[in-house]
């Protein structure tokens, strides 16, 4: 039995429609692959003829990358040449987009050659490029490619895991095209595992997304893959209906690789029904297209299908020719499934012709390859990963319970229809069953909400745990380890008391830093674990600032930095005093850390309607725009060193943001490199004034 896997969906067509629109190419024939190649080639020639042309120009690199994407299924040698050129030019100019796409093109080349391990290596290289130079859409394409390669290798566990990451990212950036593609590829994984119910569930999701997109090509791709799944389920009417819908679109737009696949699926549908003449017709149509494209994986299944068809038509010599061709292609790209299927077909042909020597040889080969695949425990891994969709399982279980109740209801109804005298009892039983069904439905909805909520909570707890371990391992272990080593040396007599005394200032600084870090860490950890409640009250901002200036005065004196409280008129805020105390202390400490000696820090307030706007200004080293975005992000853990090499946790500013937002305020920063920074945050005014303002 042939084990064709549904065709993996690619995004190059739609991506390059946008590319061609950018360069002004006419779109009526955009889907004809050769026209696309010719159009992009013309763009490249025009760019080269421009005055002052340079191969290092980003527009030129983008054009050859696009050409490489078109060559993927038509000319692998040209793809390799273009991949080298794009990558070398991009590396020479440090063009991040081009470097990423260059490695991706290499991955595409090795993928089509059946060298999935090397393809994965190149996709991973592309994914490892600095994320600041990578678009989310590029990252999403790479994740999809990586998942597809794991699928080709038979590692369905990693494939599904990568696809699920892709779904999260596609949802985040609202990329419906790839959301459709990834759901369809997941469906393909389940089809390959013969889990057709799960596959159809994902196909239905894909159909819904395709309807939202409103493009007929993605829908046609989905219909073709659904046709294959229905054919495996022996639901041939559904299979034929879906594949015909796909074929009409592919013929219209001349999408050759998908048209070859759709013809092949149609041939398989007829072959499984033993309608050999029709099967041969559609397989030959697919074969004609394969002569024009470079799709080795699809060619294996097509050749094996033709061989089986000729075997059914009693044309054994032709069957042998095509089976051997299929096996040779499968062997060339290391397709275990393809080798197994072709070996099985060769066994049947040899046995039928009484060639028992070769029949035994092919039978043993088929058995060896089948055993190799059977030993793979990916199906078990796939089942484990289904736990990620646990709430879907819960739904299935509750639906089964509903079906049992409904079955019981039908039995009661059918058995009592003949007894008119107990009609009242029948009505009572029906009503009771309906009530049971409603209760089960409510239970289903309640459990679904609980499962989704629990998953969100677990993700947040896991992020908190990772951040805590990162800070403890990176920022606390070092100073404490240094202190431990110093004390060990002293107790062992390696250093004397006089030498120990010389380390006291450094030890004090380290201990103060650890203490400050622990305070921040405990405050943040308590807030993350829902152990900290915000208890607002009226308090004086001036008093809180004065207290923290005194607390940090020694640190300021050590760097000869002057801290001035410019707050006037004793502003009163309505907030949690302890939390705002942490905010002010962290902001002043941060300014001290990044302000050189003899610098100046000023704290002031501005009346901002219903709020007080507090600002902490310093004459420090300032920050780039990129750093300004990172330091106040939800999960940033940016650790830097101050002007005197002071060590920070990277936690303080994200903690400040949490505390300010808990008190209905906002926090932001305005900074210029080498000119200093101003941190602003707002607090509601004292309660009585706030009510009057409302």
Short characterization:
The chain is α+β, with helices and mostly antiparallel strands. The protein contains 28 helices and seven strands.
* End-to-end CA span: 76 Å
Biggest beta sheet attributes? 5 strands, mixed
**Separate helix tally:** 28
**What do the pLDDT scores average to?**
80
Low-confidence stretches: 10-31, 689-694
Number of strands: 7
* Range of helix content: over 70%
Structural class: alpha+beta
| Rg value | 34 Å
- The coarse overall form would be extended
Assembly type of the shown chains? single chain
What strand line-up does the widest sheet have?
2-4-5-7-6
In percent terms, what proportion of residues is strand? 5-15%
Describe this entry's structure for a reader.
It contains 28 helices and seven strands. It has 694 residues and is α+β, with helices and mostly antiparallel strands. The strands form two sheets. Strands 2-4-5-7-6 form a five-stranded mixed β-sheet. Strands 1-3 form a two-stranded antiparallel ribbon. A hairpin with a 3-residue loop joins strand 6 (667-672) and strand 7. Helix 2 (33-49) runs antiparallel to helix 3 (58-71) and helix 11 (216-232) runs parallel beside helix 13 (256-272). It is extended and about 100 Å long.
């Amino acid at each position: 039995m042939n084990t064709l896997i549904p065709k993996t969906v690619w995004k190059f067509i739609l991506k390059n429609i946008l590319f061609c629109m950018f360069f002004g190419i006419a779109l009526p024939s955009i889907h004809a692959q050769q026209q696309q190649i010719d159009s992009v080639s013309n763009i490249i020639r025009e760019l080269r003829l421009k005055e002052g042309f340079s191969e290092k120009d980003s527009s030129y690199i983008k054009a050859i990358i696009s050409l490489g994407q078109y060559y993927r299924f038509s000319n692998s040698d040209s793809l390799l040449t273009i991949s080298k050129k794009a990558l070398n030019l991009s590396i020479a100019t440090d063009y991040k987009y081009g470097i990423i796409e260059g490695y991706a093109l290499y991955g595409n080349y090795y993928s089509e050659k059946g060298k999935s391990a090397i393809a994965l290596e190149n996709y991973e290289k592309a994914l490892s490029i600095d994320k600041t130079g990578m678009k989310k859409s590029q990252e999403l394409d790479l994740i999809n490619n990586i998942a597809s390669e794991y699928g080709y290798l038979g590692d369905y566990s990693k494939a599904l895991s990568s696809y699920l990451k892709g779904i999260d990212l596609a949802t985040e950036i609202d990329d419906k095209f790839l959301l459709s593609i990834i759901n369809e590829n997941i469906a393909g994984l389940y089809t390959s595992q013969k889990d057709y119910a799960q596959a159809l569930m994902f196909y239905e999701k894909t159909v819904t997304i395709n309807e939202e997109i409103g493009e007929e090509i993605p829908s046609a791709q989905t219909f073709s893959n659904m046709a294959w799944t229905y054919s495996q389920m022996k639901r041939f009417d559904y299979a034929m209906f879906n594949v015909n819908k796909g074929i009409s679109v592919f013929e219209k737009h001349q999408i050759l690789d998908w048209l070859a696949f759709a013809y092949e699926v149609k041939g398989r549908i007829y072959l499984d029904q033993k309608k050999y003449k029709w099967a041969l017709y559609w397989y030959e149509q697919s074969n004609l297209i394969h002569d024009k494209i470079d799709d080795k994986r699809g060619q294996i299944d097509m050749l094996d299908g033709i061989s089986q068809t000729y075997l059914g038509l009693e044309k054994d010599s032709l069957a042998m020719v095509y089976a051997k061709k299929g096996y040779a292609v499968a062997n060339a790209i290391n397709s275990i499934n393809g080798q197994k299927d072709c070996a099985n077909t060769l066994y049947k042909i040899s046995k039928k012709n009484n060639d028992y020597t070769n029949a035994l040889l092919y039978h043993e080969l088929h058995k060896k390859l089948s055993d190799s695949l059977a030993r793979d425990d990916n199906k078990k891994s796939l089942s484990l990963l289904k736990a990620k969709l646990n709430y879907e399982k819960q739904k299935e279980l509750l639906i089964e319970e509903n079906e049992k109740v409904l079955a019981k209801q039908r039995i009661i109804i059918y058995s009592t229809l003949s007894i008119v005298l107990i009609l009242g009892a029948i009505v009572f039983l029906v009503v009771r069953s309906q009530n049971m069904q409603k209760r089960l439905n409510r239970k289903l909805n309640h459990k679904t909400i609980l499962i989704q909520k629990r998953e969100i909570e677990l993700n947040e707890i896991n992020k908190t745990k990772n951040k805590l371990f990162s800070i403890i391992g990176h920022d606390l272990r070092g100073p404490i380890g240094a202190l431990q080593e110093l004390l060990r040396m002293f107790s062992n007599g390696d250093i004397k008391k006089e030498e120990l005394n010389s380390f006291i200032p450094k030890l004090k600084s380290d201990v103060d830093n650890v203490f400050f870090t622990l305070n921040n860490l405990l405050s943040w950890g308590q807030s993350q674990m829902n152990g900290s409640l915000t208890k607002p009250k009226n308090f004086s901002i001036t008093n809180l600032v004065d207290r923290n200036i005194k607390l940090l005065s020694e640190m300021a004196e050590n760097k000869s930095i002057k801290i001035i409280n410019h707050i006037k008129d004793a502003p009163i805020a309505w907030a949690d005093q302890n939390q705002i105390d942490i905010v002010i202390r962290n902001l002043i400490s941060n300014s001290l850390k990044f302000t050189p000696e003899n610098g100046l820090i000023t704290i002031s307030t501005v009346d901002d309607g219903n709020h007080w706007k507090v600002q902490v200004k310093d004459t420090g080293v300032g920050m780039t725009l990129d750093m300004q975005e990172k330091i106040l992000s939800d999960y940033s853990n940016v650790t830097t060193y101050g002007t005197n090499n002071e060590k920070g946790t990277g936690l303080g500013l994200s903690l400040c943001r949490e505390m300010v937002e808990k008190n209905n305020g906002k926090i932001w920063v305005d900074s210029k490199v080498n000119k200093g920074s101003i941190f602003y945050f707002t607090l509601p005014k004292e309660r009585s004034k706030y009510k009057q303002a409302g």
